[in-house]
């Protein structure tokens, strides 16, 4: 900051007027962290001197052109290089450039402009050009969000509301206006569009992805398309998707979470296709094909599928040739023509999941690999209600519990006469997230695991009326089970 104050003083005092061209040798000396002095010789002529920390000096133009501290023959009055310079070296990042050029790989930027909040040019305080390595991921002192948005742009929060009360009334317009790192928050409504991410690493989210009522009322009508170049920090969360999500020819690595795919009729029954990023806490149910060709609800997605409920579709999950998919803490059940399929050369890792038919129920091609890990079961998950494909009966894929489960229709907790075996059945190393107490200290399988709508744990006896200090799993006792859970997560830090 001190360097820039000196620079502004130099521009206003030495040049006399704000619009005049500054002395490049003076600007260069100051930008390098040295002192610049104006002196007068015996004839009354003024000249500039760059003074170095070791006490040595160099004529301003000599230093600007080629000399360095302690350069031989470099003293005031012994100038060998005057304006215009005859020998011009290329300029490095942060050096001023007016009559020379930037070194290879650097670009000229203009820090002398004053911008408004939207990076519109308001005023020019000098003709200072600097060399910049913009795009290296570091916001240097001479760079700003306006002259180097790649390194210095501050993330924006952009709001979308289909009734026109926000910045945008459609999601695609907000995406088109966004930059990497921005967050787009979409208010509940019906958005009749197919949105395209175009490779941008942004977050597109509903107002509350953890509330599945909000998710169900924030609807993207015609699906989502990725370019395939998105990274894991590109996120789509908290929407009901009518149609399908396509990950692009290069298979996007975007993160998809807390989304609802329910009752869709796509050409082949597929609703998530070629997405290699993490897919988590998604409810994928009651989807069917509109034609004779049938594909799995999740197809060609070769990453991590975690805490998802894939139920009552035509087909469940398909791993394509030569690829690897990990399925963790999921419920894959009641899909009419098969649960999990693996193509030739494909690999699937399944752990802590409820898969109908178990290992023997996985349909396989030749030369494929199935790693059937620990914690897997093949037991009726005890959904509240399985829907139908004709819209006459809405499904409810929360897990029944004698301790309590969330009734989305009534907006309250209710108790059942049975308890799902998927409660507390998820990966023991996963955090329980926002599951309400008593939660057993272990995450549930399925899409509601780790959320505020996770069904409560039941221990075969009435629930505690009071919270007992040290009772981590909520069984009214403090014993080795609680110590085990504490040790399992000791020193765990889940802060973002």
How does this structure look, described?
- By secondary structure, the protein is of the alpha/beta class.
- It has two domains: 2-152, no CATH class; 157-376, 3 Solenoid (Pectate Lyase C-like).
- The chain is 10% helix and 25% strand.
- The strands form ten sheets. A ten-stranded parallel beta sheet has the order 8-9-12-15-18-22-26-29-32-35, covered by helices on one side. Strands 11-14-17-21-25-28-31-34 form an eight-stranded parallel beta sheet.
- β1 and β2 form a beta hairpin.
- The protein is elongated.
- The model is unreliable at 1-20 and 68-87 (pLDDT under 50).
What would the keywords be for this entry?
496 residues, alpha/beta, Pectate Lyase C-like, 2 domains, ten-stranded parallel β-sheet, eight-stranded parallel β-sheet, 7 helices, 39 strands, disordered N terminus
How would you summarize this macromolecular structure in one to three sentences?
This protein is α/β, with parallel strands linked by helices and 496 residues long.
| Low-confidence spans | 1-20, 68-87
In the CATH scheme, the class of the largest domain would be Mainly Beta
Mean pLDDT: 83
How would you characterize the largest beta sheet?
Answer: 10 strands, parallel
Give me the CATH fold name of the largest domain: Pectate Lyase C-like
C-alpha termini separation:
31 Å
* CATH-derived architecture of the largest domain: 3 Solenoid
What is the structural class?
A: alpha/beta
Instruction: Work out the number of β strands.
Output: 39
Number of domains: 2
Computed CA radius of gyration, to the nearest angstrom: 32 Å
Number of alpha- plus pi-helical segments:
7
Helix content: 10-25%
